[in-house]
Amino acid sequence: MNRSSSLLLLIIALGSLTSGCSDEAQNKAALEKYAANQAEKAKHQSMPTAEMTEHSGGGMQHSMPMPGESAPPHQSGIDEIGRRADDLPAPLSRTQPQLVSVDLYTDELVAEMMPGVTYEYWTYNGKVPGPFIRVRSGDQVEIHLNHGKPGAAGAAHSEHTSDQHAAAGHSAHSIDLHAVVGPGGGAPLMQVEQGEQKSFRFKATHPGIYVYHCASPHVPTHIANGMYGMILVEPEQGLAKVDREFYLMQGDFYTSGKYGDKGLQAFSKEKMLAEKPEYFLFNGRVGSLSGERALKAKVGEKIRLFVGVGSHVAANFHIIGGIFDNLYPEGAIMNAPLKNVQTTVIAPGSAVMIEFTAEVPGKYLLVDHSLTRAIDKGALAELVIEGAAQPELYR
Ligand SMILES: [Cu+2]
Question: What global pTM score does this model have?
Answer without folding.
Answer: 0.81
